[in-house]
Write a structure and sequence with these properties.
It contains three helices and no strands. It is mostly helical and 90 residues long.
């Protein structure tokens, strides 16, 4: 790294890195959301792995200001809530 960078250059570089990390988080969140589908995640072991992935994603997403990352985080956390089924009795 060139230590003679001006503060504004360093701020621009940091912002560029932040945007790149946000893009990776958006892509990763989309992949985890795909895995959250009941068609993909069926077994208890798979659900446990999904919960772990969502938790790890949430840790990374907590440092992001990107609204797309926050939206994906909320969607992923929703996938962990138990699915309620309506049963009609006659």
């Amino acid at each position: 790294m060139n230590w003679s960078l001006k503060e504004s250059d360093m701020a621009n570089e940091t912002a560029t890195i932040d945007r790149a990390i946000d893009e990776v988080l958006v892509q990763l969140g989309g992949m985890v959301l795909t895995l959250a589908s009941p068609k993909v995640t069926r077994t208890e072991e798979q659900r446990w792995a999904l919960a772990r992935s969502v938790s790890q994603y949430a840790v990374c997403a907590s440092n992001s200001d990107d609204p797309r990352v926050k939206e994906l985080q909320a969607k992923l956390e929703e996938t962990l809530k138990p699915q309620l089924r309506l049963i009609v009795s006659r």
